[in-house]
Fold these 2 entries.
Entry 1:
Amino acid sequence: MKIIRTRDYDDMSRKAANIISALMTMKPECVLGLATGSTPIGTYRNLVNRYLNGDLDFSGVTTVNLDEYKGITRENDQSYYYFMNHNLFQHVNIDLNRTFLPDGTEPDALKACDDYNKVIEAAGGVDLQILGLGHNGHIGFNEPCGEFPDTTHLVRLTPETIDANKRFFASAEDVPRQALSMGIGTIMRARGIVLIITGKEKAQITKQALTGPVTPSVPASILQYHKNVTVLLDSEAASLL
Ligand code: GLP
């Protein structure tokens, strides 16, 4: 694991964008694994600016997102589809036919998971996976549990995650109880991973994930076993390391 301490959120976001830009330059037809949440917003803003400056070309890029809430439509402004469009896709020259998220509206969740696994497989796997860190150590929506799920699966969100994510909804009752998430196995098969972490409320879980035992009760701890992970974190998130 390469752990890089950055000055602050902006510095972290620029450095994450540097890594993504380098890959896009070297491999214009790369497959990017994308994340949602508040942490990557600055990274996406940097990518958009670089595109607008003429430095980046998204025309050959394929994207696969980590997760999607179950039961909310793409038009819903809380869907991760909406988030990605709003924060990245609609601002760059990406082919929307090559942007993928699990289908949260498919009533048959097993089918939605299976379809998504096939999409990732057909894309040839993920070249670079961007990850944020949940307050309870989750990555994507892989919640703390007894084992590391391999591929895309239906998740029952924990009360902690519902609580952490209610800030994006009108109330905690509005937060969907279930989601579809890429599995830990798929994440671990990505050829490279960038984990971005910011803020002092993540300091404790950061310490557990990066330096504690590898356990499915802290899902991000599995990243200690990946051969090509770069962790970019600001000084607050790094304060207990
Ligand atoms: C959500 C997402 C995760 C994300 C996490 C952290 O639950 N499913 O992929 O990493 O939130 O969000 P934030 O970056 O807002 O702390």
Entry 2:
Amino acid sequence: MNLRNFVCGEWQEFSGAGVPLTDPVVGDELARASSEGVDFGAALEFARTRGSAALRAMSYRERAESLAKMADVFAKNRDDYFRISQQNLGATQADASFDVDGAIYTNRYYAKIGRALGETKFLKEGAQIPLSKTGAFVGGHFLQPAKGAAIFINAFNFPAWGLCEKAAPALLSGLAFLIKPATPTAWLTHRMVEDVVKAGILPDGAISIVCGAARDLLDHVTESDVISFTGSTDTAARVRGNANVIRRSTRVNIEADSVNSAILGPEAAPGSPAFDLLIKETVREMTLKAGQKCTAIRRILVPRAQIDAAAQAIAAALSGVQVGNPRNPSVKMGPVVNKAQQTACFEGIKRLQSECSIVFGDRNAFQPVDADAAKSAFVPPTLLRAENGAGIVNEVEVFGPVATLIPYDSPAEAAAIARRGSGSLVASIFSDDAAFLQSTISEIGDLHGRIVVVDASVAGQSTGHGNVVPSCLHGGPGRAGGGEELAGLRALFLYHRRWAFQGPVAQFNALVDSAASTASFYE
Ligand code: NAP
């Protein structure tokens, strides 16, 4: 099966042989993808002039209704998406649900909050600003949707959610998009786009997909477009550094990698709720999607006195996790996405081993359930232990079921170690010491996109360390890319341009009358 590209309102065969997409459990080829033959210049121009123009003619409420219809289409095809996730990503039911149900939920969420913007087509921000003695000449701020296209370049680990978390805010804003999913797992994104196209929900040109290499895509973006990228720091630098992107000042949002921390409070001894909750969350984060989540816990910071107990507890829990073919119902963790990622994980573990010791996870003794180790792409859950919080553990992100325990000797040191991630998507703090919680939040808040605080009062109610909810911010400073996504209607800011009005009060009032207020974005 060839994944045809959908550009300029039509499905186009690619030229050449294409790149194979494989099943990471049995090694079979599933599909082929390539962008060879795609005219990216024409594709983006069609998206801008046909798709975005048609979307801008609709109100926020009308666009929100389209998002709801897309969610209905996705929900109808959910079983097929789970099957594709199992085949192409080696996903368990829980892994597929995290991606696919997360995608459906995100679309529905934006449909719901988007409806509240009503029949308007642009936004006003803040109050009228007096600029003259008589009050005849006034100022104010408005935001209009950019008149270009949104370009999504996505990572391999979330083919469904990665589509919707970007598409819902862009479409609601009135921008057509062209998505380039990561090649190894493009099949699911492709199928979801195909389902939306077939359903005829969106205007012509509002949705385009190109699978395969980005080639000269970025050479065709303009000042009116918005690039939303998710992937590694190295690729992010290439996207940001593209000469055309720099020359045109094309807006770029980057969601990159991150060595996220979970921090256990100084008071938390084995048997305490905080200790038990940290252990449970760490094991879940290491094994869900085989640790292939940008938000997964990579560094586990514990008081030095508790590191042996934490190591034993995590190792004991990991030893009960069946790893293997997700077609076997006893299996709780599948493979990583392909052989290349498996090799990258093993290389990353080796780099960590230069300074850390392995507590759990012996690659040589590992045998996956119902799978041939030679053909498949499994990485055993691997827990490491660092002697201190300096060095390589703060630098290497192993994008798989791998995390490292780090001891700390004081609350100040715990915060300093978390900061050595150089900017992270998320940190979680497990403690019942209110003073420790407050001081740690204040020490690390500026370098984290999200902080999850768990004490005994919220045990069992927390949305979780690695779970990104559409109502809260996703993104992080520094190494994490410096981007901001989601956070409810704030996500619309990426796709709007703010401009200041200075003029007669009557003209200002006329604009205000036909705009939705951004005040509701912060409620
Ligand atoms: P990647 O290798 O950086 O690829 C990301 C995307 O960029 C893919 O679609 C890739 O296409 C494309 N790409 C590669 N070279 C390009 C270029 N020169 N110009 C434009 N696009 C280019 O990352 P990945 O391996 O797919 O994903 C894993 C990484 O993503 C991890 O580091 C993880 O932490 C990060 N991630 C971050 C988030 C977040 O929200 N912060 C979420 C998920 C993952 P091809 O596949 O065709 O090469």
